[in-house]
Amino acid sequence: MKNFVEIIQSSINDTLGSWIYLLPEISLAFIFILMIIADLFWAKRIKNLVAIIAVSGLFIVFLEVIDQFILIPPQGVVLFSAMIKLSTAAIWYKVLITISGLLVLLFSLRDFQLRNTEKGGSEYYSLVLVVTLGLNFMVMAQNLLMIYLSIEFVSVCSYILAAYLTGNKRSEESGMKYALFGAVASAVMLYGMSLLYGFTGTLDITNQAFYNGLASINLMSASVALLLTLAGLFFKISAFPMQVWVPDVYEGAPTPITAFLSVAPKVAGIALLITFIRAVNSGGSPSGSVFLASTENLLAALAIITMTIGNFSALWQTNVKRLMAYSAIGHSGFILMGVAAYSMTGQKAILFFLFVYALANIGAFLVIGYFSNVFHSEELEDYKGMGMKYPLVSVAMVIFLVSLTGLPPTAGFVGKFFIFSAAIEAYMLGGNVLLLIMVVFGVVNTVVSLFYYFKIPLNLYLRKAKTEISLDKGNLLFSVIIIVLALFTLFLGVFPNKLIGLINF
Amino acid sequence: MTLSILIFLPIAFMILVALLPSSLNHTFKYITLAVSIVQLIIAGFMYTHFNHSLPGVFNEQTFQFVEKHSWINLNLGTLGKLQIQYFLGVDGISIGLLILSAFVMAIAALASWEIKTNEKGYFCLFLLLNAAIMGVFSALDFFLFYIFYELMLLPLYFLIGIWGGARREYASIKFFLYTLLGSVFMLLVIIGLYFSVKDPVTGAHTFDMLSMMNPANYVQGSVFDIHSSTLLFGVSPRLLAFAVLFIAFAIKVPIVPLHTWLPDAHVEAPTPISIILAGVLLKIGGYGIIRICMGIFPDGAIYFSWVIGLIGVVSIIYGAMSALAASDLKRLIAYSSVSHMGFVLLGIASLTVEGISGAMFQMISHGVLSSMLFFLVGVIYNRVHDRDIANFRGLYSQMPTYSVFVFIAFFASLGLPGFSAFIAEAFSLIGAFNSNSIPRWMAVVGAVGILLGAAYFLWTLQRMFFGKTRFKGGEEWQSQLSDVNTREIIALSPMAVVALVLGIMPFLFFDMSNSAMVELVNSTLKSGSLHLETLSKLLN
């Protein structure tokens, strides 16, 4: 009985001690409530009140996240009886998620479609904040229960966001598709998790018992359980075979949300995937984990298939958002390359790649949003000759696309360079030829991607505009953000150590 | 600082041009020309201050105008540190090409007077291209080299794509894809190399090309270590790496099966860009093969010399045959470039001092002559927007001064003694004859190529310039086809003079490069055969 009291005492202490590390998440929740109240009482009187609260609130959260670098010890802290773990890596992912959230909020402020929806924008802003909250938990989760909850949290809100433009058939269809696919994915994942629990008797994936339990049973059964669980994650990062929803959803969703969906959930999904790979490879035996070879092979094969499917399908697209959707699939393949090499090389390369991908991808979607505000079209056809009419934005678009292709002197090149290096390094350390084949595929895909990315500058610059109608001037706020992002992309391409030097873990 | 100024001067002025209002459109070409002239003066300064006795090539101490700063230092992964340097320098291999680039860029700037639309974009891209070209020839860090190498592609894509001819979309993306395909595979070799090579001083993994050339710097057992017995896809990694790098650069040269981007790009590009393409861009391929492929993988250079020689000979003959069949004057000159660049490969494959000096000299000579030829095509194309050989007759009586320049350019290109191309081709062939690494018949077939060259140039001369004056456009063309103006004479004369001076006084170039060539050939033969011996022992 005395023992029991001690346990209660220590777990209460643990819980109480954990709150301090959750400051950004608590703030997010508060801001969310504040926004709802503000929307109820003062929204009519003060224009854009909710949006202003959202942006300034998220900025404060961003500062709080940065502050956590100082707060935690180098090895990270385990919180709430091993439900979540706050490590330096997790903070980096949170930084990335918060930055993308902020950019997307700014983006949404002036988006034509969102401003003209009958519902008004208030709920929209609150939902973006809630998704950010869920994503923050996703990158920290390390208990199956927590993982499932955070993923569902994110999913449910994303469904609503994707379908936010009610009355627009495309958007409704997109939300519906997203919800259906998502429901299947999470059901499959839940099934996998139940198997994992059954095999190991623990929900904490970093627990030694988790690995031991999995390692002791038949490799086939363990693999099935793991694969089913991973399927849910693959849905989030749009990797093969869970990528089919991407083009329709990206095309139909409001452009800022597409930008957000293409970056933030992917970042969180990759973070979770790494947590998983770590857990199943953390075997204490000197010979290494029994899953090492199979996870490496599986991820390498998936990386190859994902990027090849994404890049080759993109070749035939005529809608820019759809094209970017396939490019996002291709990029998932590239990130998976880094994850496949992860067990050997760590996640610096992945993190840097995610950063530059986020910059360039959000930038590109901002330009798409900018153009669609001006001439209400996202078809490649209508981009003809726009490069001469909107020179600054178009130059920025070229910089983003060059970065996405991975050519110097942009950040995308350095990112790709690190990913290739990581894969080759992993090959040298482990000698798995599949990794080398994966790199060759990566290289060929780079060339393929150039072909479709450059369809956009081709139309912007090389072709003449169809009509000579004078169009509106674009939005100033957009142009400023776009140019800042483009300058960042160039800056990180020339001085990558300014960022990667900071990433220390 | 000299090299940095050479590289960043155009970038500074690119920013200036971008910021100036479009109402100053007409001044951009003068700004660009001024930049090129300043660069030419700097290049002249470097020529006079270049110490001929220092060989360079493998030894950092004997490089000149060296600049070395730490740029990117990272602690990445488990294999140790990564070190990228801002490392510039020139030696006998690069100095000639650097001067050539400054010269060709000035000519191209003069030829840019024909650009009438969207001048701001054009001159910004032009200056960016200029900076990248200077960077490629001065970079001694492989990472830096690669950045400049790729940086050239982007401005070229837009320069061909926006200001080009009818099929410009196709030509520009084809050019881009071809080059990129080669260079992304090159990137993999670069990554492999930096994992294999350690800086002897700092102990960090380095991209320093000179460190990569010294077998002592390789980490024991790493992929590209000479004593490593690992195989990649069943081939020795060093030989595979040589092949990959060679193909990447050979696409630029271009070699025959991979040359098809060149006629399209040349024909569609506006005149100044054709001049840059033929005058400088193709040389980057040759330069890369000599500096990087041979320097880092001498074993590959010996092992593949037969293949390289064969590719050279095929390019010479195939290029010349295609030129014979061409009906468009610009396409004819483009194919003649393929043929002439074949001599560069033949000279390289010979692995003799004469051969490689000849190859280098051919690059300089062809740089000047092909710029002149493309400029000349531009002259008539600007006047009547047509350049089909069959549409012109008896141009001599219509445009006498122009025709004189054409005669000089054609005779110089077909290898008339007294002009630079004669010396260059003669040296390449002598090298090929004396070579131990390639059979004699290659030299003989190469010589036949000169004959074919004479055939297509003389035949063109006869068709277009002699006989009774008759044009497809009739009276209208007759009034448009005025003789060359002052600007054109200013641009054409230096090229004619340089071709002649180099033909009469080739030592102006050879003195500069000779010590480097001797060093390169001796060391390649020595360490290359040593490596091959080690390799064959390891494999048996």
Automatic annotation (TrEMBL), chain A:
Signal peptide start and end residues: none
Annotated EC: 7.1.1.-
Pfam families, sorted: Proton_antipo_M
Principal EC category: translocase
Membrane topology term: Multi-pass membrane protein
Domain NADH:quinone oxidoreductase/Mrp antiporter transmembrane per the UniProt entry, residue ranges: 141-439
Lipoprotein keyword on record: no
Subcellular location as annotated: Cell membrane; Endomembrane system; Membrane
Family listed: Belongs to the complex I subunit 2 family.
UniProt protein name: NADH-quinone oxidoreductase subunit N
Subunit structure, interactors included: NDH-1 is composed of 14 different subunits. Subunits NuoA, H, J, K, L, M, N constitute the membrane sector of the complex.
Keyword tags: Cell membrane, Membrane, NAD, Quinone, Translocase, Transmembrane, Transmembrane helix, Transport
Species assigned in the record: Solitalea longa
Lineage summary: Bacteria, Pseudomonadati, Bacteroidota, Sphingobacteriia, Sphingobacteriales
A GO cellular component annotation in the UniProt record: plasma membrane
Record's function text: NDH-1 shuttles electrons from NADH, via FMN and iron-sulfur (Fe-S) centers, to quinones in the respiratory chain. The immediate electron acceptor for the enzyme in this species is believed to be a menaquinone. Couples the redox reaction to proton translocation (for every two electrons transferred, four hydrogen ions are translocated across the cytoplasmic membrane), and thus conserves the redox energy in a proton gradient.
HAMAP family referenced in this protein's UniProt entry, alphabetically: NDH1_NuoN_1
GO biological process: ATP synthesis coupled electron transport
Transmembrane region(s): 20-42, 49-71, 91-112, 124-141, 147-166, 178-197, 209-235, 256-277, 297-316, 323-344, 350-371, 392-413, 433-454, 475-495
GO MF, one example: NADH dehydrogenase (quinone) (non-electrogenic) activity
Catalytic activity from the UniProt record: a quinone + NADH + 5 H(+)(in) = a quinol + NAD(+) + 4 H(+)(out)
Automatic annotation (TrEMBL), chain B:
Keywords carried by this UniProt record: Membrane, NAD, Translocase, Transmembrane, Transmembrane helix
Cellular compartments per GO CC: endomembrane system; membrane
Segments forming domain NADH:quinone oxidoreductase/Mrp antiporter transmembrane: 139-447
Keyword check for NAD: yes
Subcellular location: Endomembrane system; Membrane
Membrane topology annotation: Multi-pass membrane protein
Biological process annotations from GO: ATP synthesis coupled electron transport; electron transport coupled proton transport
Keyword Manganese attached: no
Any one GO molecular-function label of the UniProt entry: NADH dehydrogenase (ubiquinone) activity
Chief place of localization: membrane
Top-rank lineage group of the source organism: Bacteria
NADH:ubiquinone oxidoreductase chain 4 N-terminal domain: residues covered: 82-133
Transmembrane feature ranges: 6-24, 31-50, 84-110, 122-140, 146-163, 175-197, 239-262, 274-297, 303-325, 332-353, 359-381, 402-429, 441-461, 489-510
InterPro entries registered for this protein in UniProt: NADH4_N, NADH_Q_OxRdtase_chainM/4, NADH_UbQ_OxRdtase, ND/Mrp_TM
NCBIfam families referenced in this protein's UniProt entry, alphabetically: NDH_I_M (TIGR01972)
Similarity comment: Belongs to the complex I subunit 4 family.
Name of the protein in question: Oxidoreductase
